[in-house]
């Protein structure tokens, strides 16, 4: 697969410009974000990876069944070997934030199919990412219930924006007073859910 722009190793172009929230979001029922069931927290994680020695970015957002943001994070990551490594580390960062916060039912949503398969698999392998997957699996056992779900990029756009922000803004963790762009995107996601 050929990258759509220079430096885009995953071969996917930008979903939107995260510095300027989109005023129009196309609604496709297969591509919208859905809130978790009552009693669950949905954690969407994503990574932004560009080779050439630049830091990767991790983004994560946790929401409740009302679509309310529980926490959001953006964090730069050094030493990611490839896009899958960055995705695995982003998922681990998101899970680490939820451990011990008081939520016991977690749905982890990722748009990296390889990461989802690895986290669902009971087997171990010799991939470079396996140590990261193993840590994530160990932490997932601290929750009463934990599910890993594969989603399309369009369902993961807030985490995507946070991951891109991490590469330039550095580390930020929000439990309140979220960035306007986060509120705008979460509101759009909730509106898409209402329209289903």
Describe the model.
This protein has 196 residues and is of the alpha/beta class. It has 5 helices and 6 strands; from the N terminus they run βββαβααβαβα. It has helices at residues 83-98, 113-120, 130-140, 157-169, 180-195, and strands at residues 41-48, 56-63, 69-77, 105-110, 145-150, 172-174. β1 and β2 (56-63) form a beta hairpin. The chain starts with 40 loop residues before the first strand and ends with a helix. The relative contact order is 0.22.
Walk me through the topology:
Layout: E1 41-48, E2 56-63, E3 69-77, H1 83-98, E4 105-110, H2 113-120, H3 130-140, E5 145-150, H4 157-169, E6 172-174, H5 180-195
Parallel strand pairs: 1-4, 4-5
Antiparallel strand pairs: 1-2, 2-3, 3-6
Helix pairs in contact: 1-3
Helix content estimate: 25-40%
**Main sheet attributes: strand count, strand direction, barrel closure:** 6 strands, mixed
The SSE order reads: EEEHEHHEHEH
Tell me what portion of residues adopts beta-strand conformation.
15-25%
SSE class: alpha/beta
Enumerate the strands of the largest sheet in spatial order, edge to edge or round the barrel.
5-4-1-2-3-6
Instruction: Indicate the radius of gyration in whole angstroms.
Output: 16 Å
Number of helices: 5
Measure the end-to-end span.
Answer: 33 Å
- Per DSSP E runs of 2 or more residues, the count of β-strands stands at 6
Global geometry? globular
pLDDT < 50 stretches: 1-30
Give the integer mean of the pLDDT values.
79
């Amino acid at each position: 697969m050929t990258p759509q722009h220079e430096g885009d190793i995953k071969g996917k172009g930008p979903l939107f410009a995260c510095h300027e929230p989109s005023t129009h979001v196309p609604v496709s029922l297969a591509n919208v974000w859905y809130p978790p069931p009552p009693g669950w927290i949905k954690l969407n994680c994503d990574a932004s990876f560009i080779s050439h020695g630049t830091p990767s970015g991790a983004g994560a957002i946790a929401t409740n069944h009302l679509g309310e943001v529980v926490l959001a994070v953006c964090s730069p990551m050094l030493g990611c070997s490839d896009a899958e490594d960055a995705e695995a580390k982003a998922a681990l960062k998101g899970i680490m934030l939820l451990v011990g916060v008081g939520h016991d039912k977690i749905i982890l949503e990722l748009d990296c199919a390889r990461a989802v398969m690895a986290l669902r698999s009971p087997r171990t392998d010799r991939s470079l990412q396996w140590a990261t997957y193993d840590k994530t699996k160990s932490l997932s056992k601290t929750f009463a219930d934990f599910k890993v779900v594969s989603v399309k990029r369009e369902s993961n756009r807030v985490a995507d924006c946070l991951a891109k922000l991490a590469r330039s803004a550095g580390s930020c963790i929000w439990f309140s007073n979220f960035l306007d762009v986060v509120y705008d995107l979460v509101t759009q996601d909730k509106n898409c859910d209402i329209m289903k």
